[in-house]
Design a protein that fits this description.
This protein has 420 residues and is α+β, with helices and mostly antiparallel strands. The protein has 2 domains: 17-172 and 228-318, Bira Bifunctional Protein, Domain 2 (BirA Bifunctional Protein, domain 2, 2-Layer Sandwich); 330-419, 3-Layer(aba) Sandwich (Rossmann fold), CATH 3.40.50. The chain has helices at residues 17-34, 47-53, 59-64, 83-92, 138-154, 173-185, 193-201, 212-218, 230-245, 290-293, 308-318, 337-352, 366-376, 386-391, 412-419; strands spanning 37-38, 44-46, 67-69, 75-78, 102-112, 124-133, 160-166, 251-252, 264-272, 280-286, 301-307, 330-334, 357-359, 380-384, 393-398, 404-408. It has an 8-stranded mixed sheet, sandwiched between helices. Strands 13-12-14-15-16 form a 5-stranded mixed sheet, sandwiched between helices. Strands 2-4-3 form a 3-stranded antiparallel sheet. Strand 3 (67-69) and strand 4 (75-78) form a beta hairpin.
Length: 420
Amino acid sequence: MNVQGPRGTKDITIQDSYKWQYVEDKIRNATREFGYREIRTPIFEHTELFLRGVGETTDVVQKEMYTFEDKGGRSITLRPEGTAGAVRSFIESGIVSGPQPTKMYYLSAPVFRYEAPQAGRLREHHQFGVEVFGANDASIDAEVISLAHTVLKRVGVKDLSLNINSIGCRNCRPAYNSALKEYFNSRKGELCRNCLDRLDRNPLRILDCKEEGCRKVASEAPVIIDFLCEECSEHFESLKGYLEAIGIKYSVNPKIVRGLDYYTKTVFEIISNSIGAQGTVCGGGRYDGLVEELGGPSMSGIGFGMGIERLLLVMEASGAEIPQYKGPDLFVCTMGAQARKKAFELVYSLREKGISADMDHTIRSMKAQAKFANKLGAAYTLSLGDNEILEGKANLKNMSDGSVTEVSLLDSDSISSIIG
């Protein structure tokens, strides 16, 4: 019997979950300040959603999706990315018909990709992402980027670089695709098998290939910025102006296309220079045709995704400080059945007052209980035995300095006032 976790998955244990909670708290605070509201979508969808939304020529669809047939004969896919499901929900819920823009986020959402596990990228990993619908101005592009930038700063990530690009729209992309086809056809002998297939179906995808030979060929390919229409060019220049207005430095990288077909106009990546080759910690961009593609009205969209596992790696490499897990405010050590009953009553009463309190449930010795309380990181301990029960008093010990205060067992308010 195989009782080990599947390859490419990782438990978030009680030793590490406080780190996730710290990051999640920072994200929730930032999204609230920026006016974003949380959405939670199913971890599986009909496969067609991702075929239409993500794109049939992408590596995600062709190689990496977990797809299966359910008992009703329907093709179902575990969520490989967050945007398509968010758009589907936006349309299906009717929010699409309300006042716009709509600003939403999802947090620690499980994402499934069948690929070789690597640092910060597992077959099941978790994403923080934001999606904004119904805002056309480049100011929202800058806001989305600034939200990602704010989160990364607040969790202590340093040494970041922002790369931006525009990949045009349905008006200017065809001319660029023609130029790419002409260029890559002239160097077909240097392309991998996958890129030869992409050449006719979607030459833009060749720019995103990870094969060394294809990357070398792509480095000399025409760049999209030279083919932008007036609208896309003005949008891109406007984005630069907004970023400069709030002091966010950027570099224009004409090779960024992102890995999904729905992107239009703005695309961006935030790179950490702390973890080497796997340095992209956040990526996103506009997808102005996706809502319409999935059955909604013509409406703009923009968003990003940020892997939590990758983010924690970057934080560690950056030397970010995460506050340690805080133990209980009080641990009650007991000797005897009567003392355990009194401790249970006292612990319950303190919890009702918002005090984190715990007690021994294994009938260990008083010495062993004190050691356990210290290991838990309890701020205070209280020792109860027959004498304390009889007198109605006990000694409350401050574990940080060893000082002792006598307290009444009949007055939990006085105990909570000292601890709190």
